[in-house]
Amino acid sequence: MSGIQLEAGEKVRVDLTSPLTSLTFPFLELILITGLCWMGIGYLDRPDLATTIPTDLRNAVVVIWLLLVTWRFILPLARSRRRRFMVTDRRVLVRAGTFKARTDSIPLRQIHHVDRRRNRIALALGGFDRPLHFKDVPKAKKAAAVINQSIGPARYS
Length: 157
Fold this sequence. Notes:
Number of strands: 7
CATH class of the largest domain: Mainly Beta
Number of helices: 3
Mean pLDDT: 88
CATH topology of the largest domain: PH-domain like
CATH architecture of the largest domain: Roll
CATH superfamily of the largest domain: Pleckstrin-homology domain (PH domain)/Phosphotyrosine-binding domain (PTB)
Number of domains: 2
Strand order of the largest sheet: 1-2-3-4
Distance between the termini: 35 Å
Oligomer: single chain
Strand content: 15-25%
Structural class: alpha+beta
Radius of gyration: 23 Å
Order of helices and strands: EHHEEEEEEH
Largest sheet: 4 strands, antiparallel
């Protein structure tokens, strides 16, 4: 579970991460970047330019391509795979998509109300004036239903 530790006897009810469809635009950028960079490399490799253009220029274009692919595709892929929203029988665990993000644990007994709007979930917690908002939660309707089922009837403080 890479960084998320469950307590003894704790059961996972919902475990969600970003869907691969969230990488549609980064994938299209990958295709565009690869096409443009390698067309440039093909142009630099022409036989009539082989003597006038240094090979360091071609290698620089390859390095630029690699950096762009890493920045525009590989990093978003890694971030989307790290994002996590998990509901167990005792608590809600949330981890952002950044590399140094810590996992937040919210006990179910502190949750008074769950609200969902599209792919956002708002948790009303005891002791907080405002609800905690989590955006871009995949299958937010299912997650909100499981949390509502877990906390039982609406509790008011």
